[in-house]
Amino acid sequence: MTTALIHMDPIQKQRLARRAKLRGKSFSQEVRDAVDMYLDVPVENEAELRGLAKAANHAADRMIKNLDETVAYVDRVLRHRRNGG
Q1: Residue 32 and residue 12: Cα distance in Å, rounded?
Q2: End-to-end CA distance of the chain
Q3: Is the pLDDT of residue 85 over 90?
Q4: Rounded distance, CA 17 to CA 31, Å?
Q5: pTM of the model
Q6: What is the pLDDT of residue 45?
Q7: Contact 20, 26 (CB under 8 A)
Q8: Helix, strand, coil: what percent of the chain each, to 5?
Q9: Inter-axis angle of helices 10-23 and 27-40, to 10 degrees?
Q10: How far is it, in rounded angstroms, from Cα 39 to Cα 16?
Q11: What are the pLDDT digits (tens) for 1-57?
Q12: Could you tell me which residues come within 8 angstroms of residue 29 by beta carbon, excluding any fewer than 6 positions away?
């Protein structure tokens, strides 16, 4: 393994350190994992990356809407059962 000096915002370092601790990994391993994840994204330019992020956000919004609808349905069913239905 080789060494690399990187400069990052103190908040970035704090967040990475916190995430590494939660996952039971070293700070360095967390940085390597993040770099690997970034390099595994199959994009050639920023426009593709923005498009990928937009599609991911759209999919997440749809999932959240479906979950909200499911929670509302379960709440209605439980309320109906509690009321003797």
Answers
A1: 14
A2: 65
A3: no
A4: 9
A5: 0.53
A6: 84
A7: yes
A8: 75, 0, 25
A9: 100
A10: 18
A11: 999 999 999 999 999 999 999 999 999 999 999 999 888 888 788 888 888 889 999
A12: 20
Give the integer Cα–Cα distance in Å for 12 and 60.
Answer: 24
Whole-Å CA distances, 83 to 76, 77, 80 = 11, 10, 5
Output the six-digit token pair for 40. 């595994």
Ramachandran assignment for 24, one of left (phi > 0), alpha (psi -120 to 50 degrees), beta (any other): left
Nearest-angstrom CA–CA distance, 11 and 85: 53
pLDDT for the residue numbered 82: 93
CA distances from 62 to 7, 34, 51, 57, 81 (A): 37, 26, 17, 9, 29
